Amino acid sequence: MEQERQGAGRAADDAEPRVAATKGEEDLTLGKTIAAAGLLAITSAAAIAGQGGKAEAPRAREAGVTIGVLPAGPRNAITDVAGVRVGHVTIEEGRDVHTGVTAVVPHGGNVFRSRVPAGFVAYNAFGKFAGSTQVVELGEIETPILLTNTLNVPEAMAAAVEWTLAQPGNEKVRSVNAVVGETNDGFLNDIRRRRVTIADARRAIEAAREGPVAEGAVGAGTGTVAFEYKGGIGTASRRLPAAMGGWTLGVLVQSNYGGVLNIAGVPVGRRLGRHEFAGRVERGTADGSVVIVIATDAPLSDRNLRRIAERAFIGIGRTGSSFSNGSGDYAIAFSTHAAVRREEGKAGAVGATAAELRNEAMSPLFQAAAEATEEAVINSLFAAGTVTGHRGTAEQLPLDKVLPWVVDAGK
């Protein structure tokens, strides 16, 4: 996608593969087998926070950083939307391989036969987002959403296709629109090795569970860099007050972009002197990418889901991005509400439009999308520990310096 990031870092000697702890009873046997081979870790959404970085690093909200005005859901994660599942496969081998796959599954049923309405936005389309044209045309998603690195999009697509064809009831399916987003992790990961396999990507789907979501250097965020620090996977949610519908909206991001970092309005990047406009623009490195996945239980049309996807970029802008020329910035939003599902084989040809929210009810959800996206990015930075990789080191955001600025400013 974007130009590979340049950066200085002390190269580390090749080390034994780091295998993160496998969480969840469902994956225990498989996780032990894979860990013994020293190749990868499979993480269900039920994994404890901290798998992707330093376990002691707090999430933004836990550290006293307040973003926005709406309350978060109980997990402050995309899985606060009932039925949504997340799974990661993290691949780390020595110094050179830091990559993986993250899967977001809209619900626990047959997604192909019970499709969810969806909206898609390419804010700056310097990248690849497989399946997006059919999402735009038909306004629906029929597979899990997979995130990975730029050069392994074909493997993730094949995994989504294979998994979908294998689901009971899909024996006669002859066309599948796989939905796959990507960012370029070529600074920390030897991306030309194309290490992610079809089997790896399928495992991410199979590992997907409800519950807390691992963040930081995990799954598709294993090798990503944001604002010249270690980025990764982040998530957050908002639950509207009952007077505004009581709906839940959750966001998951793959952060791999730059700019001048702001946290809750505080110019952190400027104070640290670490940003891509501090003498680096002339070297062509002020680029980056982000993929935003948004889920809600509000009954929305694909048109209004596209409008929600657009508002997510308000949150990205608040973190300090200017959506540079080489940036691939994508958002995809879907609704899980039963009334707006596109059920295959349902009698009649008329869609369930009467149950959709009116335009006048959208403003609180727009606010929720902006706030949750901003917080998800900050969570991705807080959770990601320092990683030394293929071409250098991406350091963890120095929370000891940052938190006093940000927490004090919010009082």
TrEMBL record:
Gene3D superfamilies named in the record: L-amino peptidase D-ALA esterase/amidase (3.60.70.12)
Source species, domain of life: Bacteria
Any Pfam family matching the protein: Peptidase_S58
Biased composition, class Basic and acidic residues, residue ranges: 1-17
Record family assignment: Belongs to the peptidase S58 family.
Residues that span the membrane, as ranges: none
Protein name: P1 family peptidase
Annotated organism of origin: Sphingomonas olei
SUPFAM superfamilies membership: DmpA/ArgJ-like
Disordered: region residues: 1-24
PANTHER family in UniProt: BLR5678 PROTEIN, D-AMINOPEPTIDASE
